[in-house]
Automatic annotation (TrEMBL):
PANTHER family: SENSOR HISTIDINE KINASE GLRK (PTHR42878:SF7), TWO-COMPONENT HISTIDINE KINASE (PTHR42878). The chain crosses the membrane at residues 12-32, 178-199. Keywords: ATP-binding, Cell membrane, Kinase, Membrane, Nucleotide-binding, Phosphoprotein, Transferase, Transmembrane, Transmembrane helix, Two-component regulatory system. The keyword Ribonucleoprotein does not apply. This is histidine kinase. It holds the Pfam family HAMP. Its main location: membrane. PROSITE patterns: HAMP, HIS_KIN, PAS. Gene3D superfamilies: 1.10.287.130, 6.10.340.10, Histidine kinase-like ATPase, C-terminal domain, PAS domain. InterPro entries: BphY/WalK/GraS-like, HAMP_dom, HATPase_C_sf, HATPase_dom, His_kinase_dom, HisK_dim/P_dom, HisK_dim/P_sf, HlyB_4HB_MCP.
Length: 606
């Protein structure tokens, strides 16, 4: 490859980098010059001013120490004087080594002379204070030390004034230097930037020209002209890309003539099947945009495919519950799922069936939403429920009268004199009660099937539910001489349930346990906490259940023994109630030894 695209861009980059280096170099040079001037201003003159101010402060403190000593004769002030003396000498030496301006040298010599005399006078003051007293020492201070103090201060102020004047004089020079540096840097930078822009524009256009040409060729091919060939304008990577594009166009053209017709026929056949389905179907992509919908979707939701395709599903179907269901399936990558929903003020009921669309790599490409219309099925279910409820209520009215009559006959004098009559009345009473229980189970089951939201939820005590259920069976337990044991874990958390319906479950399990336990047997009922569940169980040592029937006993109308009493609805009803609470129910049994029925409820009382 003679002229690699990579090499061209490297050359352009290096040229621009060279221009930047020139700008940076000039800027750094000017900054260095400004820094030198600034350092000269700050390091020399400013340091002289600072050390002079420190020496003035020191001799002020030393003068105060002498006066304080004269007044108090406290040796502490003498020690303070000599301590600050060292600091004065350090600053003096610093200034002595930093003489840069005319007049500083003579001032420094005068400071040295005056300060030496200042130190010598301290010894004289001490001697006078000790021998002649305070007044004499103060007089000596005024005549000897005060003039030296004023002379030192004057000399130091002179040094400060000299350096202040030097700083002011250097400011103008510094301003001119900075102004020149800035103007030079700006002017040269603008010039080099313009050169770089012109250079870049020329070569970038040259580099991109083959790309623009290739782009136009791709557009023509996209429109279906696979006979068009790209013009090869360079021998770099873009030229190679154009050559490969030509090869690809040629192969696509060949492929189009060989298989395109078949693929198109297959696509049209699939679309025809989809359009002919009598229930609404919508296909979405992974961004929840509508890809396809059939004729029934257009008719039911009053939308057209032209308006809907490419738009978000919520823009077309404003059903938040439906979108939540779809997004949950997509987010959790569920292969299939279904849910029953009502539309248009509950006038139509659909079973929403969702199926993910996946490619050969198992990557999700979209989702099919199938609206299965079950409105008529729901109407039939309602008719069935209404029929059962109506028949049950019609039967319960005369049955109640029969039971009341049987109860009155049991209390009459005829029961005492006629044994056969007693048996007949008892049989009527028992059978009536069984029939009443059967009707109640039908009503309860029908009620739960028709509306699974009829739960009156509240926090309840498990112990109270168990005790209320047990109270109803003490007489039956006594008749069969069955021992009842209760084992409830202490301090159980309250459960969030429909107390009445959980009572139905417990009554049914307890009734079955007593029914299938022989005389003088034992029934155990209890509850305990099991991680995030509350487990309630009923155990008996009755006849038990064979293994083949243990998986079927919760089916509607199933009875393990065809000769046993009951309809087979009790356990099915119990299972449905427990599952409506988000729990589960199961059986453990050994034939001939007894059974344990356990149901678990979510522990929501934490």
């Amino acid at each position: 490859m003679k002229n690699s695209l990579k090499l061209k861009f490297i050359c352009l980059f290096l040229a621009l980098l060279f221009i930047n280096f020139i700008i940076v170099g000039i800027s750094l040079f000017n900054l260095f010059e400004v820094k030198q001037d600034t350092n000269k201003l700050v390091s020399n003159n400013y340091d002289s001013i600072q050390t002079s101010n420190k020496m003035i402060q020191i001799i002020d403190e030393e003068s105060q120490d002498i006066i304080s000593y004269i007044n108090t004769k406290n040796p502490v002030f003498i020690r303070n004087f000599y301590d600050t003396n060292n600091s004065f000498h350090e600053n003096y030496l610093s200034e002595l080594n930093n003489i840069t301006e005319e007049g500083e040298s003579s001032a420094i010599k005068q400071i040295n002379t005056d300060y030496s005399a200042f130190l010598d006078s301290l010894t004289n003051i001490i001697a006078i204070r000790d021998s002649k007293g305070k007044e004499a020492a103060l007089s000596q201070y005024t005549e000897q030390i005060q003039p030296l103090y004023e002379g030192l201060t004057k000399s130091l102020r002179k040094i400060i004034n000299i350096n202040d004047t030097a700083i002011v004089n250097q400011k103008d020079s510094m301003k001119n230097s900075i102004s020149f540096s800035i103007n030079t840097t700006i002017g040269l930078s603008i010039f080099l930037i313009l050169v770089g822009l012109a250079f870049s524009k020329r070569y970038i256009n040259k580099f991109l020209s083959p790309l623009y040409s290739l782009h136009d060729d791709i557009i023509k091919t996209k429109e279906g002209d696979f006979t068009h060939r790209a013009e090869i304008l360079s021998d770099d990577e873009i030229g190679i890309l154009a050559q490969e594009f030509n090869n690809m166009s040629e192969k696509i053209g060949q492929f189009q003539h060989s298989t395109f017709g078949k693929l198109l026929d297959e696509k049209n056949r699939s679309l025809a099947i989809l359009k002919s389905i009598s229930d609404p179907i919508i296909v979405l992509d992974t961004n929840y945009r509508i890809v396809l919908l059939n004729d029934e979707s257009e008719n039911y939701f009053k939308i057209s495919q032209a308006q809907a395709v490419g738009r978000h599903v919520l823009e077309t179907l404003t059903y938040g519950e439906l979108f939540d269901f779809i997004s949950n399936v997509m987010d959790n990558s569920l292969e299939k799922d279904s849910k029953i929903m009502s539309f248009k003020n509950n006038s139509t009921v659909f079973k929403i069936n969702l199926s993910l669309i996946k490619d050969n790599a198992n990557k999700t490409n979209g989702i099919v939403v199938y609206f299965q219309n079950i409105t008529e099925i729901k109407k039939i279910e309602k008719l069935k429920h209404d029929l059962i409820s109506s028949l049950s209520h019609e039967i319960k009215t005369p049955l109640t009268s029969i039971m009341m009559g049987a109860s009155l006959l049991e209390d009459s004098e005829l029961m005492e004199s006629n044994t056969n009559f007693n048996k007949i009345v008892s049989a009527i009473s028992e059978d009536s009660q069984k029939l009443l229980n059967l009707i109640n189970n039908f009503l309860r089951y029908g009620q739960l099937e028709s509306d699974q939201k009829l739960l009156n939820m509240s926090f309840c005590s498990v112990e109270d539910i168990i005790n209320r259920s047990v109270d109803e069976y003490y007489s039956l337990l006594e008749n069969k001489n069955i021992e009842l044991r209760i084992g409830i874990q202490r301090n159980l958390t309250e459960v969030y349930v429909d107390e009445e319906k959980i009572g139905w479950v417990l009554n049914n399990l307890l009734s079955n346990a007593i029914k299938y336990t022989r005389n003088f047997g034992t029934v155990l009922i209890g509850a305990y906490e099991n991680f995030d569940h509350i487990s309630i169980f009923v155990k008996d040592n009755g006849i038990g259940i064979t293994n083949e029937y243990q998986t079927r006993i919760f089916e509607k109308f199933f009875r393990a023994n065809s000769e046993s009493e009951g309809t087979g609805l009790g356990l099915a009803l119990s299972k449905q109630i427990v599952e409506l609470h988000g729990g589960s129910i199961y059986c453990e049994s050994q034939y001939g030894l007894g059974s344990i029925f356990t149901f678990e409820l979510p522990n929501k009382g934490d």
